[in-house]
Design a protein that fits this description.
single chain; disordered C terminus; eight-stranded antiparallel β-sheet
């Protein structure tokens, strides 16, 4: 690479997680021939065409017709080569880069860029290199998938377009917006408007794109070859079926794009501070650097305000719901950036020279697409006062670069990931191709020996043999199978943005779960207060009367609850604690005591909870009954963290909280201190370090964290189905181990890796020092067993054979430091007190060790782990705010339904009254705001089935029209509406289209989003994944067998003059297409099996089954052919290459091929223990049953004339009986062989415990120690 200054350096790189590398290109010169540009690679073909036409003209003049035919064939060959090369440059980006471009070392001369994404992130593309003037500089960049990358000359790489989201904090505090029209114009040029521009290409353009796909072109070639062999009906049927399928896929893509365009967040008008004054602008006009006023509109009936872009809060506070992005249903507090004091108020308000960090400072950022439930306007002393009482904020990112834009890009490009073009498919086709080449060579060798055989027909047949082993239906069938799974999951309210991961779900062997909110209920219960003087570990259950004023004040004041539509919503733990005090929220935002209402408490400032800090504190102003006002700091947090902030921790502090934690309770330390001499604004400027120092211990709040009723059955089912279970939580080790024991995650004695004595605290800026192993030990929950920590593999594996292991956050950090995470993480069942970063590290370590992982979580803290797993499942529970809105909406709908008539209440009407089908029900709205799960109607069932555009089904819409006209809904009308709705629901995936995933259905947290509060969807995903995996493998087997049988028929049978009639081939094609379609819609069993499916086709079972059944079928076909040949009179035999004419040999061969096709589907169908039995698959069972019935009818020619309709001739009774008997034997042999292989070669079972993986690989551990000593 040569830079702009002419200096030689390394090749340009790109700084993006999803991109592997880039390469600069220069388009080769084009030549104009007539009016058409010709690539330089096409010049040899243009010269060849000119030369051939000149020769053909000369031969025509001379009358040399035989030579002219040869030149015509040469012309056809050149045309075919030219078209093929042109198509290959269209299919292969790398080939196009070589033929149409040249590599360019000089950035200033390059015209295009080859962008190569990482695996599963899309396909390579060649995009133009763009140059534009910004101020006095030239910006060089390119756009790839709605994201712009710009050249950074200093670092020699392309970066994503830089937004002002990493500036120094003082820069934001002093921001005054875009002050001049020049700045506005420059910002608009650089970042563009705040829009999600989803392109909507015309139908014809998309159809051409699909028709030029490699497999479709190959399918067209196969159709042409069959047509040349006079199979016109069969060719036209096949071509029509393929074109219809592609048209339905194109129409589905267009519907998805239209729906995605309509679902983009509407940009409401908003007050923007530009050129020194406030003006109202549409949300689309926002630019990075703009100052705006944002908040929830005032007045009754106004909906929540959707944040139009990613913004940094400068003044005022807001309460937002971020479920649409993170899956976190609890409303989030958003605080302003803070004051520019030298001493920070808390971790978020850093000194002015620090730079903004989106991940660290997320509590100060309003993310695009989230909803503002409540706000407090900017203070009067804010540097810029808002005109409408809103919060003051500065725009950081717009368009597709916002958090919502990233989710939209994921959804927009997800359909491209459903593909059959992987290495497994390619290797399987190469395997079949080997046999096809042998068969083709056999035909070519023997055909050339016969002088009277047509050479054209011979070469045509050889081409058909080779193409027959590449199943043209394969991409279509695999796409239908995956889309059927997507639709089945969507019906269970599970939405997927990355369809290729469905098959991965069938291969999962390690399932990881968050605990709090995922396995345990969100409805916490305050059991009581412990640790009070002279009470020891005893619990005081009546908090309001017995716990004392200090405890009550801490529980009331140290929380982040918010009032939404008259109800308190927030963290379940804080809700349970507040409700136990009996206090009430009074007017003006303060809290009043429940006994007499005379004591009040007002929260002045919050130091918000952080998963890394594990604590929270607030500054409150107290007005005691009959006393003087006072200022307090009230705090709470994890016991092991809060101990260092207490001035008077009791002597039994550690024993007390561990006693309750060991029983599965969640223990929180309560503390406080009084602030003297501070009042007014000074209370909000107390540094966090000062506020949290020298606290007085108030007690332990002990909460019951009950398990969800669905957790134990689901985890038991997963354990019994050969899955290793792991818990990853931020809770204490004792609480986590207690819950893990009840959930079958641990089933042996447990040892916890813990730190000896107090933790080592580092001062800010101090270099971290690796601690020795002697600082850590293995400790049982009851502390009866203590063992030294040993980092050696032999000691770790031996220990894990006897005990289930638990790692705390400190011990896990230690093994990461010493490089032993790859050893200890797979051996561990429970990880406690883990940070979000450690959760992600655990999943990456498991993946690196060869495990196929699943992670299930429910909140923001799990996002990293969810993305790191092969299969991430985010539980998107309806929020409290959404439930409140849904209740109001339901009440309105009930009133309307009561006034609309007294017709029968069927499913369609019930959906209307439950909030489904209306424009405000669930996440899939089409009339405006994109609501997250748990938006209006999110608590009902409307989230995943709102119909197209959120309007409900056809029947529901019909009932709405009838009700609006004031007409009664009769039972007959209700029945018709239900029937229309069921038709529309069933047709959702029948056209092969991917069900549309909406921004409210999916979150950024994970590829799978389950709109549920329990982990039941995890079992559904694994069951559907196994079903799809099994269906895919059996499709490969069936296609392989049919292709090999076809290759044999086209080779050996062709040499004997045997061929099928056009109608016969068409009938078999129709049967095959129907059976593949119903096969792709297989349904999983309700119960997960301990037996696992084969993870891929490359195993002994698949190939032994394939070759064995092929041998049986070929033997059956050859035997029947010889029997028919011996029975048929010699004068009825067909000469080579003659026209088709029904005879006995043809009749027998058609019936045998019919038997082979039906037998192949019946024998290779995999039912129990993964899918429903063959008899329960009504479609496939019906095809097989009626196929056998038709076979018998053709054998006996009843009713009379049916055989002749299929171009068959009457068969002797003995031959009919022989074919029938042979068919039975063929079926039984294939069935017995398949059954034997399934028993003899089952899929490998994954390790039950992590140590088994090491035992099988290590020579240091004796084999006799394979079984654990303690079960």
């Amino acid at each position: 690479y040569v830079n702009m200054a002419g200096e030689v350096g390394p090749a340009p790189r790109v700084d993006a997680k999803e991109l592997r590398h880039i390469r600069l290109l220069l388009r080769r010169p084009r030549f104009i021939v007539g009016q058409y540009p010709v690539e330089i690679s096409g010049v040899p073909f243009v010269l060849a065409y000119g030369f051939i036409f000149m020769q053909m003209f000369k031969l025509t003049v001379q009358g040399q017709w035989d030579t002219l035919v040869a030149w015509k064939l040469g012309l056809y060959a050149v045309v075919i080569v030219h078209i093929t090369l042109r198509l290959f440059t269209y299919w292969s980006v790398s080939l196009a880069a070589k033929l149409q471009f040249s590599s360019e070392a000089h950035l200033d001369r390059a015209s295009d860029v080859l962008v190569v994404p990482k695996e599963f992130s899309g396909y390579p593309e060649i995009v133009p290199l763009q140059r534009r003037r910004l101020d006095a500089t030239e910006e060089i960049g390119f756009v790839f998938r709605k994201q712009r990358f710009t050249w950074d000359e200093d670092d020699g790489l392309f970066r994503t377009l830089q937004f002002p989201d990493h500036e120094m904090l003082d820069t934001y505090r002093k921001a005054s917006g875009l002050g001049t029209q020049t700045k506005v114009a420059t910002a608009l040029t650089r970042w563009g408007p705040n829009q999600f521009e989803v392109p909507l290409p015309p139908f014809s353009e998309l159809l051409v794109e699909h028709l030029l796909a490699p497999f479709f072109c190959f399918q067209t070639l196969c159709v042409a070859l069959w047509a040349l062999d006079d199979y016109w009906y069969y060719s036209l049927f096949t071509l029509g079926m393929l074109v219809m399928f592609e048209c339905t896929v194109v129409m589905q893509r267009l519907r998805n794009l239209k729906e995605l365009r309509s679902l983009s967040t509407p940009k409401q008008s908003i007050q923007v501070y530009r050129e020194g004054k406030w003006e109202k602008l549409p949300g689309d006009a926002l630019l990075p650097g703009d100052i705006l006023s944002i908040g929830r509109p005032q007045g009754e009936g106004n909906s929540e305000h959707v944040v139009p872009a990613d913004c940094l809060l400068l003044a005022g506070t807001a309460i937002v719901e971020e479920a649409v992005l993170t899956g976190e249903s609890t409303p989030q507090w958003k605080n302003p950036l803070g004051t520019p004091d030298e001493e920070a108020v808390d971790e978020a308000a850093l000194v002015g020279t620090d730079r903004l960090n989106i991940k660290r400072d997320k509590a100060q950022i309003l993310f695009g697409g989230t909803r503002i439930l409540q706000h407090t306007g900017a203070d009067k002393d804010a540097r810029i006062r808002t005109p409408d009482g809103g919060c003051l904020a500065v725009v950081l990112r717009t368009g597709f670069d916002t958090s919502q834009g990233q989710l939209m890009r994921t959804i927009l490009h997800s359909t491209e990931r459903v593909t059959a073009n992987n290495w497994e498919t390619g290797m399987f086709i190469l395997f079949l191709l080997f046999f096809a080449i042998l068969a083709s060579a056999y035909v070519l060798y023997h055909g050339l020996q016969e002088v009277d055989r047509s050479r054209f027909k011979l070469f045509l047949n050889c081409s058909m043999i080779i193409t027959s082993v590449i199943p043209p239906e394969l991409p279509m069938e695999l796409t239908i199978a995956i889309n059927a799974s997507l639709l089945a999951l969507a019906r269970k309210r599970v939405f997927c943005t990355e369809p290729f991961r469905i098959v991965m779900a069938g291969k999962v062997d390690v399932c990881c779960f968050d605990k709090t909110g995922t396995l345990t209920s969100n409805d916490m219960l305050l059991q009581g207060i412990a640790g009070l003087p002279r009470r020891g570990t005893a619990l005081l259950t009546d908090v309001a009367k017995e716990a004392g004023d200090a405890v009550v004040r801490v529980l009331v004041g140290c929380q982040s609850l918010v009032m939404v539509d008259g109800s308190l919503v927030g963290d379940p733990l804080e809700l349970a604690a507040f409700n136990a005090t009996g206090w009430k929220r009074s007017e003006g935002g303060s809290f009043a005591s429940g006994r007499d209402g005379r004591e009040s408490l007002t929260i002045e400032h919050r130091y918000h909870f952080s998963s890394s800090l594990k604590r929270m504190a607030t500054v409150v102003r107290l007005q005691p009954a009959g006393g003087n006002p006072a200022a307090w700091v009230v705090a709470k947090g994890a016991p092991e963290v809060m101990a260092q902030f207490l001035s008077d921790a009791p002597p039994d502090y550690e024993d007390s909280y561990k006693a309750h934690a060991a029983q599965g309770s969640r223990v929180i330390v309560l503390a406080y201190k009084e602030l003297n001499g501070l009042e007014g604004p000074k209370l909000r400027r107390v540094p966090r370090a000062e506020a949290e120092s020298d606290l007085t211990f108030a007690g332990f709040a002990v909460f019951a964290c009950p398990l969800k009723p669905e957790s134990e059955p689901a985890l038991r089912a997963l354990k019994e189905s050969s899955h290793q279970l792991v818990m990853i939580t931020g809770d204490t080790p004792l609480t986590a181990c207690h819950a893990a024991g009840r959930l079958h995650i641990v089933d042996r004695p447990v040892l916890i890796a813990t730190h000896r004595g107090p933790s080592v605290r580092r001062k800010p800026g101090e270099v971290e020092v690796e601690e020795p192993d002697s600082h850590f030990e293995w400790l049982s929950p009851d502390e009866s067993t203590r063992l030294p920590f040993d980092r050696s593999q032999e000691a770790a594996v031996q220990l894990s054979m006897q005990y289930d292991l638990c790692f705390g956050g400190e011990a896990l950090h230690h093994v990461e430091q010493i490089g032993a995470a790859a050893l200890f993480v797979p051996l561990t069942q429970v990880f406690a007190r883990t940070s979000p970063e450690q959760k992600e590290t655990i999943l990456k370590t498991l993946r690196a060790g060869g495990a196929t992982t699943l992670m299930c979580g429910d909140g923001t803290n799990d996002v990293g782990a969810l993305k790191a797993a092969h299969v991430g499942v985010a539980l998107l529970a309806p929020s409290k705010a959404g439930e409140i809105a849904a209740a109001k909406q339901k009440a309105i709908l009930d009133e309307r339904a009561a006034a609309g008539g007294r017709g029968g209440r069927g499913p369609a009407q019930a959906r209307l009254q439950n909030g489904e089908g209306s424009s405000s029900s669930g996440s899939g709205t089409g009339s405006g705001t994109v609501l997250p799960a748990g938006g209006a109607g999110g608590g009902g069932r409307g989230g995943g089935r709102g119909g197209r555009g959120g309007r409900g089904g056809a029947g529901t819409r019909m009932l709405e029209g009838v009700r609006k006209r004031g007409q009664p809904i009769t039972p007959k009308l209700q029945e018709m509406a239900d029937w229309l709705d069921s038709l529309e629901a069933d047709a959702g995936g029948a056209d092969g289209g991917v069900p549309m995933v909406k921004p409210g259905d999916a979150s950024m947290a994970a590829p799978f989003t389950a709109k549920d509060t329990a982990i039941g969807p995890v079992c559904d995903i694994i069951k559907q994944g196994r079903c799809t995996l099994v269906t895919t493998v059996q499709m490969f087997k069936i296609l392989g067998l049919l292709c090999l049988s076809t290759a044999y028929s086209l080779s050996v049978m062709y040499l004997e003059g045997v061929k099928l009639g056009d109608l016969q081939a068409t009938t078999m094609g129709i049967l095959s297409a129907a059976m593949f379609f119903v096969l792709s819609n297989s349904k999983p069993l309700d119960k997960l099996s301990a037996q696992r499916p084969h993870p891929n086709i490359w195993c002994v079972y698949v190939f032994a089954s394939l070759l064995g059944q092929f041998l049986v079928h070929v033997t059956f076909l050859a035997w029947c052919y010889n029997a028919a040949k011996a029975t048929m009179p010699p004068d009825e035999r067909l000469a080579p290459d003659s026209e088709f004419k029904p005879n006995l040999v043809n009749t027998v061969c058609f019936l045998v091929n019919w038997v082979i096709q039906i037998t192949t589907f019946a024998v290779n169908y995999v039912g129990h223990p993964f899918n429903t039995a063959l008899s329960d698959n009504k479609g496939l069972y019906g095809c097989i049953r009626y196929g056998w019935v038709l076979l018998v009818a053709l054998l006996v020619d009843f009713p009379g004339g049916i055989a002749s309709w299929f171009s068959l001739v009457p068969m002797p009774r003995s031959l009919s009986a022989a074919v029938a008997g042979g068919a039975a034997i063929d079926f039984l042999l294939c069935y017995q062989w398949e059954s034997f292989l399934r028993l003899r070669h089952p899929a490998p079972q994954p390790p039950r415990k992590g140590y088994e993986r090491f035992v099988q690989q290590s020579d240091n551990v004796p084999t006799k120690a394979l079984r654990p000593k303690t079960e």
